[in-house]
Specification:
The protein has about 210 residues and is mainly beta. It has one domain: Putative cyclase (Glucose Oxidase, domain 1), CATH 3.50.30.50. Helices cover about 10% and strands about 25% of the residues. It is built from two helices and 13 strands; from the N terminus they run E-E-E-E-E-E-E-E-H-E-H-E-E-E-E. Helix 2 links the parallel strand 9 and strand 10. The termini are close together. The mean pLDDT is about 95.
């Protein structure tokens, strides 16, 4: 029997955010405890907080916004590659990704935490991003805040992937997920004009 594995970060106060970005905050608009007719909550946060999908608009002028992204990229078979201990993912690490055979690749690096922003997280090299795009991969996911290195000024991996129509998931939680093939379900919200969207990402065992 198949089972679901939640690979999403929990959105709560204290979750790590990119330095200078909008921190997550939640508050009550209405409360049963205060005598209101129901509970109503509200949140403020960057769209890049927690597990999220980057829209092409994030780095490409005129690129698709979150509401325009092809949902089929976010649903289907996905290969989890365990690259724990690898700081920069290179083409040499992608021997299992054969052209035309794998539509979605998720990188397990265990180099980032949800409660603390660490600048030394693992990332893709430009060459790895290009190799994935040329192999026909439709979605790339990683368990760090960015597919690019933290001090990048060019954001080459983002631009190569987005320019090739490859969807990007970031801040996945893969620590309890063995390498192998799964079904990914990680649909973004239909946010008009926005450069990213939170997702509730899960894997289904096959």
């Amino acid at each position: 029997m198949s089972r679901l594995i939640d690979i999403s970060q929990t959105l709560s106060t204290g979750i790590a955010t990119w330095p200078g970005d909008t921190a997550f905050a939640s508050f009550s608009v209405m409360s049963l405890d205060s005598g209101d007719s129901c509970n109503v909550g509200s949140v403020t946060m960057s769209l890049h907080t927690g597990t999220h999908a980057d829209a092409p608009l994030h780095f490409l002028a005129g690129g698709e916004a979150a509401a325009q992204m092809d949902l089929s990229a976010f649903l289907g078979p996905a290969l989890v590659l365990d690259l724990t201990g690898v700081g920069e993912i290179l083409p040499a690490h992608l021997s299992e990704v054969k052209p035309g055979t794998i539509a979605r690749v998720l990188f397990k690096t265990e180099s980032a935490r949800a409660d603390r922003f660490d600048l030394s997280f693992a990332h893709l090299s430009e060459g790895a991003a290009r190799t994935l795009a040329e192999a026909g991969v439709r979605l790339v996911g990683i368990d760090t805040p960015s597919v690019d290195r933290s001090d990048s000024k060019e954001f080459a991996a983002h631009k190569v992937l987005a320019g090739a129509g490859v969807a990007i998931l970031e801040n996945l939680v893969l620590s309890q997920v063995p390498a192998g093939l799964y079904e990914l379900i990680a649909l973004p919200l239909k946010l008009h004009g926005m450069d990213a969207s939170p997702v509730r990402a899960v894997l289904r065992t096959l």
